[in-house]
Amino acid sequence: MRRRRIGWLVLPGIALFLALGIGTASGDVISGTLRNNAGKAIDPSGSFDFRDVQLGTSLTQCPQAGLDPNGQPKPLNNNRSMDKVEQLSQGGDDRRANPEYSCFPQNEVSIDVNPTDPSNIMTSQNDYRLGFGSSGINSSTNNGNSFYSLIAPFPSLPSGDNLDGGGDPVSLFDRAGIAYYTDINFNRTDDTNGIWVRRSTNGGFTWTRPCVAIDNTPGDPTDDSARCGGAGDPRQPGDGTVIFNQDPTAGVSNGDAPFADKEYTAAGPRPAGVGPVCFGPNTRKPTMCNPDVVGVDRLYVTFTLFTATSAEIQFSFSDDQGRSWSPPRTISGSAPFCSFGAGNACDFNQFSVPTVNPVTGLLGVAFQNFNTNDENQYLFVRSRDGGTTFEGPFFITPTFDQNYPRSGSSRPDCRPRGQQTGRAVLTNSCFRVNSGGAVVADRRGGEFADDFYMVFSDNRNGTRVSSNSDVFMFTSKDGGSTWIGPTRVNNDPSRTPADRDCTRTTGTPPVVNPACAETFGNDQWFPWLDISEKGDLVVVFQDRRLDTESPIGVGEWPTSKTRQGNYISWFWGAQCSITTTATVTSTTTTIPRAASQCLAPNAAIVPQPTTGINPDANDLVGAGTSPFGNFVISDTGYNLDYSFRAGIFMGDYENVAIGPDNQAWALWTDARNGRSSRNQPGRNPACEQSDVFVDSFSAASGKNTSGNRAEQGEELLYVTPCPTENQDKGSGKN
Amino acid sequence: MVLQQSDVGAQFTRFDEGPQARADAPSGDRADAKRFDREGGWKARFRRSGSIETKGPLVIESRADVFADAGGAETELEAHEEELREDATLLDSPAGLGEAAVVATTVQGSAPAEVRYYTVAWRRGNVTASVEVNGFAGGLARADAVRLARAQDRRMERAARE
Questions:
Q1: In a mutagenesis test of the A interface, which of B5, B42, B134, B136 is the best target, namely the one with the most A β-carbons within 10 Å?
Q2: Torsion sign, CA atoms A497, A503, A507, A508
Q3: What whole-number distance in Å separates Cα of residue A352 and Cα of residue A539?
């Protein structure tokens, strides 16, 4: 394969900023004012963004497609009629993973498969069934045919409070089959927050309740004498507490506490020569571990720590099944391609994902970085010693995320629907999107031991007026020092605009440049990936390619529907098998054939920038053919305008996990049970909701379509009224 | 001090109302909920069914923000006007709307589904308010937004007297 170098335009002024060491950022994420010197903001998690959303009553019964018709207990008077959409979407083999009857939404999902028992599936999501956002867990021990569901136990605090706000779900099994659930928890009325990990030993049906340790001797900072709760509380002090930030001004939300956000978790063997280490609950000093609870794996958590001046990626680990955690520390490092941070610190980040090679214990972490003047970038760090030391960051790729349509500016229709000003959205919709993705380590050892794969999405093939978000894959064959790409994963038609940054032409009123408004392709977003032990790489994502016909000016919000098609969504997968590999480094001149599987023809070795990047708007790094086979996973489409409060939030990511039997399990946010609120009064009408759906397929071959196909009754999804018997009857009448 | 159902008519459904939440915060200089000694704010949002042929607004947003004094409201309106100047076209201010007012408009999309937006922002004493409407360009006029703004301003005037 001929080598091609990608050159990035360097902004001359960056060097001056670096020389002067001009400082980083200011503001706070709580009030939404945190900005770096380029004026950029970082989106906190959606569950946190919408934490003061209060939903109405959950008395109303609503569509319940996807529930196991035989295994699910049913309410009285369950003789309601199904509308046509529910009839169509009840077919097929998609299963609903959240078996609860509230008409409140679930979104943002994570899934894992028990490596010791592939019939045991654990899923999790942002869950609003209580009337506000918290964390839901659903577990199955019969191959996903039915699920048991619960709200994750709230962590207990020294103050006596329990933090009931939750989000950013992560489902994880270690190699011994112990299940872990990680999330952020936060207060709604002040800035108290943290990250906790719960543990289950029965496949996800019952769970530990995390405890923030109560210091028995608060005047002694060297002492680890602590307790949980009251007398007789059997919990180990600090169990499950990765980080806890108590608001110094309790009861006041003013951004005066650091905020731990967007965590993710991985598990893997301790590298050779690394022994287990445990930690004191107060001091977090290393201690001897209780050998009875040393985990077969080391658990890793990475997250973003927002302060008044930075958003660093922090890291913590546990060797005792989550009972104690290392003191969090920054791993996002510094690099010549990070601008605006003191000493080139890469200190403005989000969306970290850790991954571990299950043979060697090599740990890799990919994360979004915003220390740039314009387009942002994806970076990578690694550790070969279980997190004691880290190498990097290494540059993976720019992310073309500055030209998304934005609520309030290029998309003034989204703000009155309740979307926050400045949030990236897609054409025809107002739910917030991001360019976040995921990284996974190859599961094999030997020549594959240093291989990583990473996916994300961005709008390089679209414009601010007409989005065309696509999914891209990058791979490393040398432990993450060098990356190869881009390889487009979705294989539907997609072309690159001549000027992806085109917006308005002059005139009164300003007129949108017609070239900006062409259709460059339909959107794909929120990708995730996994790889099997046989090298089958599976990517999943939300996708609107099948909607080519929905007219302009129709749908649930006519003034938001400005482009034909690209409205109704499905969940898709892509598959490619990697059976050979070879080392590729920064000095490799030609990518070896053995390392070329699943790469696009124009994928190239990405050089490590020597200063800040600023890709040109006309850089053609976008389209090209995809080596991935694509297939639709969801049996029906859905209208995400019904997902949450006027369609403004459908979560921040989707998920996939491959089990030991080479079955891939896709989990996604799905609005097939959502309905229109247009004829209902109220702050949060009963019918707007989304659920989480699951389906499985062979990781080696992808899914064979079955059951309903999306073309059936697509027009029914444009506007689906809330059935009369399901509508709210008005204040005091429910 | 925000629009009520009787102001917009029965053909509209109110889909959101109450105190402004964090997600409702504007951007830029107005992102901080405590800006200019702001004390709080409210919102009401309305929608109705429609199509390209529908006359009048399809979505209405009404907001009101209270400040410690008139100076804060004045600074707020100036900041809001600057934001509107960046993304929209300013039009003549309507006479007699509060103590100062600004009207802006923008369009999105292309014919026959061009979407027109009007924002009317004004202040009265220590309160600022705004009405934003959108609808299809063939059927939405500046007068639609100004009429709603005046209805809201009458509520503000009554509230100030009480």
A1: B134
A2: positive
A3: 18
- Average pLDDT over every residue of A331-351: 95
B54 and A558: CB-CB below 8 Å? Answer: yes
Count other C-beta atoms under 10 Å from residue B39's C-beta: 13
Q: Cβ separation of B50 and A558 shorter than 8 Å?
A: yes
> B23 and A49: CB-CB below 8 Å?
yes
pLDDT band at A5 (very low <50, low <70, confident <90, very high): very low
Q: Report whether A371 contacts A341 (CB < 8 A).
A: yes
Q: Identify whether the C-beta of residue A134 lies closer than 8 Å to the C-beta of residue A122.
A: no
What's the rounded mean pLDDT across residues A383-403?
A: 97
pLDDT surpasses 90 at A230? no
Q: Which residues of A touch B24 (CB under 8 A)?
A: 418, 420
What amino acid occupies position A371? N
For the complex shown, is ipTM > 0.90?
Answer: yes
B residues 8-47 closer than 8 Å to A (CB): 13-18, 21-27, 31-34, 45, 47
Please tell me the distance from the alpha carbon of residue B30 to that of residue B27, in angstroms, as a whole number.
Answer: 6
d(CA A613, CA A346): 13
Distant-in-sequence contacts of A560-565, Cβ < 8 A, 24+ apart: A560/A411, A560/A413, A560/A414, A560/A417, A560/A428, A560/A429, A560/A430, A560/A641, A561/A428, A561/B113, A562/A427, A562/A428, A562/B108, A562/B109, A562/B113, A562/B115, A563/A427, A563/A428, A563/A466, A563/A517, A563/A519, A564/A519, A565/A519, A565/A522
Q: Is the peptide bond before A393 cis (omega within 30 degrees of 0)?
A: yes
Does A67 contact chain B (CB < 8 Å)? no
Residues of B in contact with A418 (CB under 8 A): 16, 23-24, 45
Of A15, A33, A16, A35, which is closest to residue A25 (Cα–Cα)? A35
CB B96: neighbour CB atoms within 10 A? 8
Instruction: State which residue of chain A sits closest to B89, comparing Cα positions.
Output: A509
Contacts of B132 in chain A (CB under 8 A): 412, 415-416
Sign of the dihedral through C-alpha A141, A144, A147, A151: positive
CB A566 within 8 A of CB A641: no
What would the mean pLDDT of A648-656 be, rounded to a whole number?
A: 96
Mean pLDDT score of chain B: 92
Q: Which residues contact residue A208 at a Cβ distance below 8 angstroms, ignoring those fewer than 6 apart?
A: A153, A198, A199, A200, A235, A239, A240, A322
Which pTM value belongs to this model? 0.94
Mean pLDDT calculated for residue range B27-34: 84
Give phi and psi for A514, each to the nearest 5. -55, -30
Cβ–Cβ under 8 Å, residues B60 and B45: yes
Q: For chain A, how long is the longest CA-to-CA vector?
A: 74
Report whether pLDDT(A16) > 50.
no
Comparing alpha-carbon positions, the chain A residue that sits nearest to B35 is A31
- For residue A511 the two structure tokens come to 């007129």
A445–chain B Cβ distance below 8 A for any pair = no
Window A:645-704, CB contacts with B under 8 Å: 645-646, 648, 677-683, 685
Q: Is B48 on the interface with A (CB under 8 A)?
A: yes
Q: Residue A97 to residues A134, A138, A640: CA-CA distances in angstroms? A: 16, 6, 18
Count of CB atoms situated within 10 Å of the CB of A21: 12
The angle subtended at Cα A310 by Cα A307 and Cα A316, nearest 5°, is 75
CB-CB under 8 Å, B117 with A412: yes
